[in-house]
Amino acid sequence: MSSVVEHDDGAPRHPLDVVVVGSANADLVVQVERHPAPAPGETVLGSDLAVHPGGKGANQAVAAARLGARVALLGRVGADGHGRLLRESLERDGVDLGHLHDTPAASGIAMIAVGPQGDNSIIVAPGANARLTEGDVLNAAPLLRSAPVVSLQMEIPLPAVLAAARLARRAVLNLSPAVPVPDELLALCDPLVVNEHEATLLLGAPREPRKPREPREPDRQAKELLALGPRSVVITLGAEGAVVAEDGAVHTVPSPSVAAVDTTGAGDAFTGALAWRLAAGEPLVEAAAFAARVGAAAVRRAGAQDSYPTMAEVEDL
Ligand code: ADP
């Protein structure tokens, strides 16, 4: 197992760019001709099972590490086959696993049924991810404080996310899945990262239809999210790139146009890349422009982690 050599105070001897605190899941993928009927009781037969390393935390860590970032993942996996698969894929990309704890629970899994149009239905069993505690995060305080950026998502318990955000020099939070969070957490985000769907869930539906002269929806939503308290906001817009809101101004960041094959994990690739560029000291708008290129590169291949680009591939776009 790779592990950062640490000083007596627990801080790593070799500096890290990003510490990801988050989930690792085995993605169990079955192709189906159609999804089972909404009412319980139906069985449909599907394709052979494919098992891929995933989970938003592990995806972010692999995305950043493959680009060249020095990354550690703080999280929990089970001491089982899925846990080994997850560790192996993280190790291949050089992610430090000194704070990825083996846990007496099954590794997290996502059961993913993919329909003929690429339409997904997903059931997540968090398993070991749900056992990540505030204490785990506090025990790693020197590690978290040592990195310029701590990158977070919501597939682990809220107390762990909040503890990590409090310790972080700069917290990047992908609020996915979009669950209610306390104002204190929002206020620590720099930036808060969501996709359009999550932005709408967080803000609720607009009270009145938009009038023609009003700003376009993503710009309005970015400003409204900023008003909830985060220091900055990024809304990712799929093929359209992203909008960035900070200091009251909204900037549009385009995405290169590519032939999209599979958008699974694009948001995680975006956030991992964003965290790395912010750790390198780039301004948010420039970091988001780079992250949009990484997201675009990632949708050109199937899978999540399997699809993430190297730096050379991003430069070729
Ligand atoms: P999520 O995966 O969280 O739903 P998005 O679909 O918004 O997030 O994708 C994240 C980023 O990936 C986008 O900001 C964009 O840069 C890139 N991306 C996603 N889909 C496409 C696409 N079809 N073409 C080009 N870039 C894309």
Can you describe this structure?
The protein has helices spanning 56-67, 81-92, 134-139, 141-146, 158-167, 183-188, 196-203, 217-227, 266-279, 284-298, 311-316, and strands spanning 18-21, 25-31, 50-54, 71-78, 100-103, 108-114, 120-125, 149-153, 171-174, 189-195, 232-236, 242-246, 249-253. With 317 residues, the protein is of the alpha/beta class. It has a single domain (11-24, 56-107, 126-315), classed as UDP-N-acetylmuramoyl-L-alanine:D-glutamate ligase (3-Layer(aba) Sandwich), CATH 3.40.1190. The protein has a nine-stranded mixed beta sheet with strand order 5-4-1-8-9-10-11-12-13, sandwiched between helices. A four-stranded mixed beta sheet has the order 3-2-6-7. β11 and β12 form a beta hairpin. The longest helix is centred in the last third of the chain and has 15 residues, at 284-298. The site of adenosine-5'-diphosphate (ADP) has 18 residues, from α9 and α10. Adenosine-5'-diphosphate binds at residues 195, 236-239, 241-242, 255, 258, 260, 263, 266-267, 270, 292, 295-296, 299.
